Automatic annotation (TrEMBL):
A Pfam family per the record: ABC_tran
PANTHER family reported in the protein's UniProt record: CARBOHYDRATE TRANSPORT ATP-BINDING PROTEIN MG119-RELATED, GUANOSINE IMPORT ATP-BINDING PROTEIN NUPO
Xref: Gene3D superfamilies: P-loop containing nucleotide triphosphate hydrolases
MF terms (GO), sorted A to Z: ATP binding; ATP hydrolysis activity
Source superkingdom: Bacteria
InterPro entries: AAA+_ATPase, ABC_carbohydrate_import_ATPase, ABC_transporter-like_ATP-bd, ABC_transporter-like_CS, P-loop_NTPase
Species this chain originates from: Oceanotoga teriensis
Signal peptide segment: none
ABC transporter domain sequence ranges: 8-260, 272-528
Protein name: Monosaccharide ABC transporter ATP-binding protein (CUT2 family)
Amino acid sequence: MNEKVPLLKLENISKDFFGNKVLNDINLTIEQGEIIGLVGENGAGKSTMMNIIFGSNIIKDTGGYGGKIYLNGSEINFNSSFDALDAGIGMVHQEFSLIPGFTAYENIVFNREDTKYNFMVDIFGDRLSTLNRSKMKKRAEKAIKTLEVNVDINMLVNEMPVGHKQFTEIAREIDRKNTKILVLDEPTAVLTESEADILLKTIKKLSKKGISIIFISHRLKEILDISDKIVVLRDGELIKEVSPSDTSIHEISEWMVGRSLEKKEKKSIEERKFENIIFKTKKLWVDMPGETVRDVSLEIYEGEIFGIGGLAGQGKLGIANGIMGLYPAGGYVEFRGQELHLNDALTPLKKGLAFVSEDRRGVGLLLDEPIDLNIGFTAMNIQEKFIKKLFGGLLKWRDDESLQNIANEYINSLEIKCTSEKQKAKELSGGNQQKVCLAKSFALKPDLLFVSEPTRGIDVGAKQLVLDTLKKYNKEYGTTIIIASSELEELRSICDRISIVNEGKIAGILSPKDPIASFGELMVGNVSTDSKKVSNV
Ligand SMILES: Nc1ncnc2c1ncn2[C@@H]1O[C@H](COP(=O)(O)OP(=O)(O)OP(=O)(O)O)[C@@H](O)[C@H]1O
């Protein structure tokens, strides 16, 4: 009998990192054109499994893996990702692998550039061939067009907003002619809902063309909407394979965490009164690629949790980036009654402001350093915390014990999955790296904390934990918190007031109890409605 051979088959796959077992006896098959939705808590082993399929160096450099992988029935054993690409397996990693100083189109066709004939090639060989840029641009444009997004292919990658970087990465994979399997590791984490919708449609189209997709996401609704088969990993074990029509978000969440989850009643937010203005902006503008901040005037009360929402590119992320000196900014900003000088990244930190950026890997972590140093680093440098001094400060050295203590405090409270506080940041899973970034800002004990997209890349179970930790900080230390988020429900669950930014201006400020429709109206710039300004809840 002629048994049908699956496109890809994983047989008894296991992996440990220096004795720490992270994958155990995984068996999985993937058919041509099938979309597999891969889910699991932060640190469950999803990226590791994908790195094995993609032949990533990190697997080989850490002792390889156990078990066998078959592609079209033949065993494969990739020596590098180039072998995987040659075999038709592409991957878009959580962290971008684009070349920052190159344009989008150069990145999309990188290593597969078109060249022009010139006579020197006949004499000296291919090394003297010249690039056929117009052909390269046409190819890049075609790939971007497939995605139906508006990305400027001539823009340098380091000047792009994160969402556009993500589309550039995917366009690069689409441009490859031989792709059979595409692994997408949390591709929608950096996208807005509407951008994510576009991507999901593209994924469906690719699968119809016969390309198989392995799609990792913490947004379980997406997983249910798009997958042909949902695969749940927990603590390195494959614990469930299920069809989306036979399950629900709640059930998947329970398989992920391994226990039954109570359906939480929505708690109504207690109304709080605030007296003093701690922070003000007048006519703030910020020049950040992809983010329009034109004219933002705000007054923030000491001790409140203030939300900033709005559609992508309207300015919600640009505000904190400008104030914290990461992008050119102008206008007037005041903190505790004193003008705060803009275009300087050090002064805000010294004055008691802190920022957890949406681009956490870009500006957040010292990847080769251990967790404890990452958590304490900024506080050490800016506030001389975790430092021992002798002779009136003439002799200074690192206080390793207090660093360890603070790190362990956050490892426990934020449930950071790691082997110890000495594990290097680069060895943590994406979601756990993000928790380290939050801990780093908490260690500063700031008076005013800006947080952008606090739960991006965080699994369903840990989302609430992160929001609760923010609330706890606000309550215990009186920290004023300004949260920018594309998830309106997240803002409505913890903020005292929520502003909506539209076209670089504050369209209105609402109470979290206001109806969703009022937020929606402000998001599309309809300011003439009843959107009352909540000056103090
Ligand atoms: N290079 C490495 N060295 C040591 N341990 C590692 C390394 N890479 C990953 N790990 C460990 O393997 C485990 C699984 O990590 P992995 O990145 O596969 O998780 P994940 O399911 O993708 O999580 P997330 O949702 O947070 O991205 C984690 O405990 C992580 O610390």
